[in-house]
Amino acid sequence: MRPIIKVVQRLAPKQSEIVDYLLRRIISGELPPGSRIPSLNEMTIQFRTTANTAQLAVNRLRQEGYVTTVQGKGKYVADNPPHLTNFGLVFEPEPQSSRYLEAWQKEAERANAHPAGSPRRRVVTYCMSDRASAIKAHEELVAALRACRLAGLIFPFHPLAFAGTPVLDEPDVPRVTVADVALPDVHCIRLEPVRGKMLDYLARHGRRRIASLFISVPWDTSGDISKLIEEASARGMVIKRHWVQGVSHYPPCWAANCAELLMRCDPSDRPDALMIMDENLVPAATAGLLAAGVRVPEDVLVVARTSFPYPTPSAVPAKRIGYNIR
């Protein structure tokens, strides 16, 4: 078992000693959930202290969620102690708001609602949206890890930004990500590529000239575009390079302008389908289709990436393809 860094600050030495002793026995499983902890009298003798000091130490563990008191029967390890039921949801630094992150945060709130009769699990969100909050959230996360207050970590993104930090290096903490990752001790849930599903859907509906909108990124994506064109060609479809555009969703007008421009051309040489590869682009891009005056789905069939169960608003009918956050 990994060492427990002291989690209780500003406690008298004897209180801190009792807290650390009980925590070690609880987290190691020596005192499992529902088991009775030593009585105040036993602790006063073992630690050569007063009953008041022992009571203050137990009170702190109760505040932390490790111990509960049963009236008239004594003090017990909680049925749902933090080290078994608290999960950290860790967001990489994200300079802009994201529908994807919003979906994860909503699911965290839903999980924390604890409907009657359901197991008590708590999702603690560590959202590093800007430099100031990132520093604070990182410090809180590292403290929670070293205090064994988390049962595991969930990364909605590739966790590479945390390489070389305790967020990834602290031992004996289960970690999972939905990003394609090759990092030690991080389990990856590999998901079927969305764009293949999108292309298959469009092919089944007889669409052959495909345009696509992505979120613009600060690195070379020419290889990805070439692969997309190849995947479409293998299905008997055509994607011209100028039909693949990377745009920002800040401000939204860029996606709207781009979608409108793609459709304002000779109908004989116009895309008959649009793949919206990021859910943040859906509201503006579909508004751009309306502005272009095209009929959906008659002139252009729309398929949009989505994080279920939280689809983004669309100005026109769109087939939603993606993953269920829940």
List keywords for this structure.
326 residues, alpha/beta, Arc Repressor Mutant, subunit A, Rossmann fold, 3 domains, 5-stranded parallel β-sheet, 12 strands, 37% helix, 17% strand, elongated
How are the elements arranged and paired?
Blueprint: H1 13-28, H2 40-47, H3 51-64, E1 67-70, E2 74-77, H4 82-85, E3 86-91, H5 99-111, E4 122-127, H6 131-146, E5 152-155, H7 166-169, E6 175-177, E7 187-188, H8 194-204, E8 210-215, H9 222-234, E9 244-247, H10 253-263, E10 273-276, H11 282-292, E11 301-308, E12 319-324
Parallel strand pairs: 3-4, 3-5, 5-6, 6-7, 8-9, 8-10, 10-11, 11-12
Antiparallel strand pairs: 1-2
Helix pairs in contact: 1-3, 2-3, 10-11
Question: How would you characterize this protein structure?
Answer:
The protein contains 11 helices and 12 strands. With 326 residues, the chain is α/β, with parallel strands linked by helices. The chain has 3 domains: 13-77, Winged helix-like DNA-binding domain superfamily/Winged helix DNA-binding domain (Arc Repressor Mutant, subunit A, Orthogonal Bundle); 82-188, Rossmann fold; 194-324, Rossmann fold, CATH 3.40.50. The strands form 3 sheets. It has a 5-stranded parallel beta sheet with strand order 4-3-5-6-7, with helices on both faces. The longest helix has 16 residues, at 13-28. It is elongated and about 90 Å long.
